[in-house]
Amino acid sequence: MKTMRFKYVILFFVSLFLFTDCSVKNDVTKIVITSDDYMKFNTREIIVQSGKIVKLTLKHIGQLDVQVMGHNFVLLKKKVNLIEFANKAATARDNQYIPVGSDEVIVYTDMIGGGQETTIEFLPPEPGVYDFVCSFPGHYAMMKGKFIVE
Ligand code: CU
Q: 66: CA distance to ligand 1 center in Å?
């Protein structure tokens, strides 16, 4: 009976070690989002863990040119009004539709066209719910979602 219990204790420590090992190797959250010629992201919700680096790839699986159907991923700070931001961004054509000197953005990708992809790496902000959006003129109506940091 006693050796039985001892085995469980060993098993417990072994599993603890394995789990810890996994989380160390695995401390980057990889996220792939696609966008298309129909002004859509493939998701409206992204969930990540606090303190874990996020490696986010945006793919444009359509064919239209960046000038016509460009997409990006812009993560907004809390309390930023998405519509007001999008209207400002729409005038910033020479800056990839990111308002020059903006303090409303946490991170953003390049603007890409059909067949392209772009990747960014960043440490997520403090736990909470944030908006993400594509800042190409007019796209915010359809291309937006929640970025949740747990
Ligand atoms: Cu877009």
A: 9
